[in-house]
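Handover notes (outgoing to incoming on-call)

Open items:
1. AbrB/MazE/SpoVT family DNA-binding domain-containing protein: sequence verified, structure written out, both below. Nothing else pending on this one.
2. Nothing else urgent.
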Amino acid sequence: MTVWEATLSSKGQVTIPKEMREALKLRPGDTLVYCLIDGEVIMTPKNIDLKDLVGLLGEPPGGPATLEEIEDAAVKAAADNVFDMSDDNGEDVAA
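AbrB/MazE/SpoVT family DNA-binding domain-containing protein structure tokens:
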């Protein structure tokens, strides 16, 4: 596990260290999703624009969905995955 430090500015801003940006393949304008779990912040990049994935898997089984419905479902699934600890062995928990 790699740990980085950053300082909070007077405006409440934090600069993500270059090495972390490179590791996560972050570019200017990318969106980050933050979750607060038991006092710890989990930050996940949202690098993929779901519009780029339209039609990739063929016709959806429940019928067509709007891009907003698809994006809402993807964000919910990502959040559910963050909170799902059923297969977690605890090795990646921050110290």
